[in-house]
Structure formats: structure tokens, C-alpha cells
Amino acid sequence: MYRDSGPAFSFTITPVVKKLLLVNAVVFGFTLLAGPSFTYEWLAFRADHPLTRFWGAFTYMFVHGGFWHLFMNMLVLFFFGPPLEARWGGREFLRFYLVAGLGGAALGLLLANGPMVGASAAVYGVMLAFAMNWPNAPIYVWGIFPVKAKWLVGVFFVLALVGTFDPGGSRTAHFAHLGGLIAALLYLKADWRPGGARRGTRPSARRSPRPLAIVPRELTRTRSDAAEPAERETADERGLLDEVDRVLDKISAQGMGSLSAEERALLDEVSRRRRTN
What we know:
Layout: H1 15-34, H2 36-43, H3 56-59, H4 67-88, H5 90-111, H6 120-133, E1 138-141, E2 145-148, H7 149-163, H8 171-190, H9 223-227, H10 235-254, H11 261-276
Antiparallel strand pairs: 1-2
Helix pairs in contact: 1-2, 1-4, 4-5, 4-6, 5-6, 5-8, 6-7, 6-8, 7-8
């Protein structure tokens, strides 16, 4: 899907993306068992029942109208979600995903003329965020034709905008897409996260805190230490390295932004010791 100037392609699924895929699959299974009429009545977003079905603004983004509707949305989430979650952390990624989805419901409340279902608004927001972070990453359409992320998302935006004025098309679906894009863009540009680097752009060295050298356990020892028996490692050293392992696991799951001042200081200290050895 993306190579070279974008993040390295991998089939690794980050924790929040994995949970979102699972929840959407479970809700789709429930739709098959309960029937679409029941599911759409109680879980879809309905602009004609905004108060009596208020939860639909949230639940609609987990309901899909068919297998291919579900498959295409989850495919986009599978490819574009993990790089963003790895950069932002799981909590921030989930917040952004839900904001984009709620943006689709907000525009639907004003303009839609029928029930709204699907994760399209949320995944359109994810695509936009990916393009803002890696604008020149080539996306291989059908695995053959490379298109830069910024141009591909631009095409989707134009299609969503044109679709809203097409009386013969599914205007409700296009309202969701457009609402997700608009909400995602406003959220990324406003950057309401206190003290955080802007989500919509790559972090610059000027905004970055002092550099941290993160090293695995085996690299915190000198070569001469590595050749010595394991008994050379004191209890204090083992405790320190165990704490570093915990912090590295936290970074892997939630991103650098989740670290406390004490955890950053710990990594700085380990880095300093490594440089002086």
C-alpha cells in the first residue's frame, strides 16, 4: 500500500486498530443474526430521531450495510491506522477516530435524508491524517498504480463533495464522508491536546524535547560486560533495566507522548550511562 517516503509497510496491527476491527466484525455478526431492519432502527444514526435515538451518533459507525461495505472500511483502517496509532499512541488515535465519526453524524444531522451507517466517516478521517503526516507516501492503488497520499485523499474529498449534490446518488453516504473529513481536518489543525506536538504534521526538531536514546537491554552494557558472566549484573542494575523494558513496552503500545517526566528522565539517564561507557 505505501512504501519509500512513507512508514515501512508491515502487517503488524496496533492494539486499538485491532479492537476496532474486532468490534466492527462482532456488530456485523449481530446484524446478520438480528436482521438489518432491527439494527438500523436502533443502532443507525437517524437525523429524524436525534433525541430518541441519540446514541446512534456513536453506534452508527460500527454498523455496516453489507460485507463489502464492512470489508472496504476495515481494509482502509488496517493499512492506514497502525502508523498513526504508533505515532500518537492508542488513546489519542481512538479519540481522533471517534471525533471523525461524530463529524459524519453532525453533518448528517443537518443534511442527511435517511439512516446513516458505516465507519466511512471515521476511516476517511484516518486517511486524511495519514496524508497530512506522510503527504508524499505513494499509495499503490490495486497494488499497481502509485499515487501520492495527498492526491489520493484530495480525490476522495472531491468525490464526497460532488456526491452531496448528486440527487440520484447516495447523498447520505457522501454527507458522512464529507463530515468525517471536515471534522478530522478541524481537529488536526486545532490540536486541542494540551502541550502536544501538532498531530497533523511531522514533529520538528525545534518542537521536540531533548533527544532520547532508547536502547534495548543488551545494548546498555559495554562489550566487556557482555563477555562477563550474568552474575556481574547487580540487583540495582537488573531493576533499572526491568524499568527500562516497561517504559519501552509503554512507548510501543501508547507512543512517546504517553511518557511521564520521570519516565523520560529514566531514559535520559540510561542513555547518558551508555554514552559514558
